[in-house]
Amino acid sequence: MKILVIEDDPSLRELIAKSLEKERYVAEVADNVRTALFKIEDYDYDCILLDIMLPDGNGFNVLKQLKAMKKQESVIIISAKDSLDDKVEGLELGADDYLAKPFHLAELHARIRSVIRRKQHQGNTEIGLGNVRIIPQTFQVFVGNQELMFGRKEYNILSYFINRPNHLIRKETLAEAVWGDHIDQVDNFDFVYAQMKNIRKKLNDANSTLEIKSIYGFGYKLIVHD
Predict the structure, then answer these.
(1) What order of strands is seen across the sheet that includes strand 219-224?
(2) Phi, psi at residue 4, to the nearest 5°?
(3) DSSP letters of 167-222?
(4) What are the angstrom distances between the C-alpha of 183 and each of 97, 127, 158?
(5) Of 164, 160, 144, residue with least CA distance to 152
(6) Does residue 11 sit in helix, strand or coil?
(7) What confidence tens digit (pLDDT) does each residue in 4-33 have?
(8) What rounded mean pLDDT belongs to the chain?
(9) Of 96, 87, 140, which Cα lies nearest the Cα of 119?
(10) What angle do CA 128, 27, 201 make, to 5 degrees?
């Protein structure tokens, strides 16, 4: 899962980002409205953590732009302004939750899991496709009743595909989603090929009904066999 932290306080921004990385999220940051909108225009996120008071505007402007762009990201407002009017305005503009500062990181993580599960998985605690199940909260993968041991990036890639069955996924899009926007600086995608090889072998050895097919010149597509 990929999360954008929009927060102008550098110490809090760094603290949140590091805590998210420990929870196995891909965390990206922005410290003002302008940078945030550039990132939102160029990349997709599973969740956005949005401060209201920013040096070049306020978070409500970001919410309005998200709505105008028809983006589907979950949004949690994190603000020191714990007023009813701000909560109501934020929720009416499309925010999914509102968390007042100061807050415990454990509560923030729980709120993130909740909004993502509610928006992407209809509240389910596990996701199933074919004979494969993944459990996002514990990062487990099962084929039937057999648990497969997946590394962190392997799990993230499989989760990305399971949430997008039958979609053509470009390798650049996959790499950016799993490794973050700094992936633009790499010279090749050999690390993606290596991870894909491992995932395919593990699924095949377990007789999975899922297959990640290579589409020459484009990328990959996850298909389900009967």
Answers:
(1) 168-170, 219-224, 210-215
(2) -105, 125
(3) -EEEHHHHHHHHH-GGGGG-S--HHHHHHHHHHHHHHHHTT-SEEEEEETTTEEEE
(4) 30, 27, 19
(5) 160
(6) helix
(7) 999 999 999 999 999 999 888 889 999 999
(8) 88
(9) 96
(10) 40
Which ranges in the chain belong to alpha helices (H)?
A: 10-22, 33-42, 59-68, 84-92, 105-120, 152-162, 171-179, 190-205
Q: What is the pLDDT of residues 66-122, one digit of tens each?
A: 988 888 889 999 988 767 788 888 888 889 999 988 899 999 999 998 888 777 656
Q: For the purposes of burial, counting CB atoms within 10 Å of the CB of 97, is it exposed (0-12), middle (13-18) or buried (19 or more)?
A: buried
Please give the radius of gyration of the chain, using alpha carbons only, rounded to the nearest integer. Answer: 18
Q: What is the pTM of this model?
A: 0.68
What is the Cα–Cα distance from 101 to 8, expressed in whole angstroms?
13
